């Protein structure tokens, strides 16, 4: 079972990487029409993530693929039980991706505003629904002895799952606002900083409520884990640094806050993968849901070869597109 535990850690890392990298993309998508008051500003805001968003989104695909390959029953029960949620999530991902490509295809204000709205809605749905699903895995949903979902859509809803989605939305908003302060200039930078200062206290309060709730829901006692303590410190530091206008350190703090929040959900879930509200005897666990040792060994070799290459390539991409974006770059004649 050593390989099974290893792949639970890998899956946790992949989901964490998705929220760290795609988190600021989602935040920019939600905020681009708020931080910018004209077309040039909106185009500049979108272009801060233009070269990055699709590469960051791959982490979501790889995380789901890791669940499928390493823990097939976990993947099957989650995607069947949360089917309606997954359809909405897929719709959000589609309209979000299409909006990047389609908003500038027609020179019409109404056309662009429509796609801007879809970009905002799609960017909101992704963290909300993924957070809702992760919260449901920990809180528990009706699962029988055969690890089949036995409830309906209403059984997916719980206060904790909904709050998990809201918390991740707020973290992405703060992450995106701090990112735009690093990637824009002039008025856009100032408005991004103002938004970050307004969002930071609300996000900090949400995380401070969410982490103890997560620990209590998992039945892990009253004392927080080290990861949860780091998350609390990071989100408080992010709020303080945003007010102090330490742009780089504020973005670093939001990165740590969102990463440790996701990690805390998975560490509190372990060794379970999905909690059954019908009976804890029906829980999906690392032990009863893992693929065979040979399959996990082959996957480990493949991951050891290709994951470092992917990280190097993505790091190089961030280096190439590191410069700030100015609204003045988009005030001239349209070229797209």
Explain this structure:
- With 336 residues, the chain is mainly α.
- It has a two-stranded antiparallel sheet with strand order 1-2.
- Helix 7 packs antiparallel against helix 8.
Which CATH architecture is right?
A: Up-down Bundle
Class by alpha and beta content: mainly alpha
Strand order of the largest sheet: 1-2
Helical content band: over 70%
CATH topology: Formate dehydrogenase/DMSO reductase fold
Our count of domains comes out at 1
Q: Which CATH class?
A: Mainly Alpha
Q: Helix and strand succession?
A: HHHHHHHHHHEEHH
Question: Mean pLDDT, nearest integer?
Answer: 92
Outline? globular
Query: In percent terms, what proportion of residues is strand?
Result: under 5%
List keywords for this structure.
75% helix, 336 residues, mainly alpha, 1% strand, Formate dehydrogenase/DMSO reductase fold, two-stranded antiparallel ribbon
């Amino acid at each position: 079972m050593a390989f099974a535990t290893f792949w639970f850690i890998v899956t946790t890392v992949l989901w964490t990487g998705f929220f760290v990298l795609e988190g600021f993309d989602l935040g920019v998508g939600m905020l681009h029409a708020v931080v910018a008051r004209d077309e040039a500003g909106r185009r500049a805001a979108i272009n801060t993530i233009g070269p990055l968003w699709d590469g960051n989104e791959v982490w979501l695909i790889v995380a789901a693929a890791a669940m499928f390959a390493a823990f097939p029953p976990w993947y099957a029960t989650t995607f069947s039980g949360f089917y309606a949620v997954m359809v909405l999530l897929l719709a959000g991902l589609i309209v979000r991706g299409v909006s990047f490509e389609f908003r500038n295809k027609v020179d019409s204000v109404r056309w662009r505003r429509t796609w801007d709205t879809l970009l905002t809605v799609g960017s909101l749905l992704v963290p909300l629904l993924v957070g809702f699903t992760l919260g449901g895995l920990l809180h528990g949903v009706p699962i029988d002895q055969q690890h089949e979902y036995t409830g309906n859509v209403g059984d997916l809803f719980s206060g904790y799952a909904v709050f998990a989605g809201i918390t991740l939305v707020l973290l992405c908003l703060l992450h995106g606002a701090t990112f735009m302060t690093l990637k824009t200039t002039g008025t856009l930078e100032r408005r991004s900083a103002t938004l970050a200062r307004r969002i930071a206290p609300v996000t900090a309060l949400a995380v401070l409520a969410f982490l103890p709730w997560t620990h209590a829901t998992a039945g892990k006692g009253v004392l927080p884990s080290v990861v949860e303590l780091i998350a609390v410190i990071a989100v408080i530091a992010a709020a303080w640094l945003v007010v102090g206008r330490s742009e780089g350190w504020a973005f670093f703090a939001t990165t740590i806050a969102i990463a440790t929040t996701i990690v805390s959900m998975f560490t509190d879930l372990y060794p379970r993968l999905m909690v059954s509200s019908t009976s804890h005897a029906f829980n999906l666990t690392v032990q009863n849901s893992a693929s065979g040792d040979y399959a996990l060994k082959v996957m480990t070799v493949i991951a050891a070869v290709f994951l470092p290459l992917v990280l190097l390539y993505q790091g190089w991409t961030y280096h190439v597109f590191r410069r700030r974006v100015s609204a003045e770059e988009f005030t001239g004649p349209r070229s797209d």
